[in-house]
C-alpha cells in the first residue's frame, strides 16, 4: 500500500488544512516512509505469540468499597463560602 497525493489532499481536506504543492509532496513522501517502516512488522515471525488487546497486563486497581463515616456537617460547612439552614448556599443559576 502506498499513499498518493490524492490521499494527502483528502486528509488535508478532512482536517481543513490548506497545503502547498510542495507540502503535499513532502507529506506524501513522509507517509510512504512511515508505511514502509511499518511493513517491517510483516517480516516478524509471530507464530508462537499469543494475541493480546494490550501490551501490558491490566489488572483492576480499584480498592474495596468500604463504608466509612463522613465528616460532621459543621466541619463541612466551615469550608463553604456561605451557608443557610445546614446547606451550602450558592448563587442562583436560573431566574
Automatic annotation (TrEMBL):
Signal peptide span: none
InterPro entries, per database record: Asp/Glu-ADT_sf_sub_c (IPR036113), GatC (IPR003837)
Enzyme class at the top of the EC tree: ligase
Keyword tags: ATP-binding, Ligase, Nucleotide-binding, Protein biosynthesis
Enzyme Commission number(s) of this protein: 6.3.5.-
Catalytic activity: L-glutamyl-tRNA(Gln) + L-glutamine + ATP + H2O = L-glutaminyl-tRNA(Gln) + L-glutamate + ADP + phosphate + H(+); L-aspartyl-tRNA(Asn) + L-glutamine + ATP + H2O = L-asparaginyl-tRNA(Asn) + L-glutamate + ADP + phosphate + 2 H(+)
Purpose of the protein: Allows the formation of correctly charged Asn-tRNA(Asn) or Gln-tRNA(Gln) through the transamidation of misacylated Asp-tRNA(Asn) or Glu-tRNA(Gln) in organisms which lack either or both of asparaginyl-tRNA or glutaminyl-tRNA synthetases. The reaction takes place in the presence of glutamine and ATP through an activated phospho-Asp-tRNA(Asn) or phospho-Glu-tRNA(Gln).
Family to which the UniProt record says this protein belongs: Belongs to the GatC family.
Description of how the protein assembles with itself and partners: Heterotrimer of A, B and C subunits.
Designated name of the protein: Aspartyl/glutamyl-tRNA(Asn/Gln) amidotransferase subunit C
Source lineage: Bacteria, Bacillati, Bacillota, Bacilli, Bacillales
Amino acid at each position: 500500500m502506498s499513499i498518493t497525493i490524492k490521499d494527502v489532499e483528502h486528509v488535508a481536506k478532512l482536517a481543513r488544512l490548506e497545503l502547498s504543492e510542495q507540502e503535499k509532496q513532502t507529506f506524501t513522501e513522509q507517509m510512504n516512509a512511515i508505511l514502509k517502516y511499518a511493513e517491517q512488522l510483516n517480516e516478524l515471525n509471530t507464530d508462537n505469540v499469543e494475541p493480546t488487546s494490550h501490551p501490558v497486563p491490566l489488572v483492576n486497581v480499584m480498592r474495596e468499597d468500604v463504608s466509612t463515616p463522613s465528616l460532621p456537617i459543621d466541619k463541612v460547612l466551615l469550608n463553604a463560602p456561605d451557608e443557610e439552614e445546614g446547606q451550602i448556599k450558592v448563587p442562583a443559576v436560573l431566574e
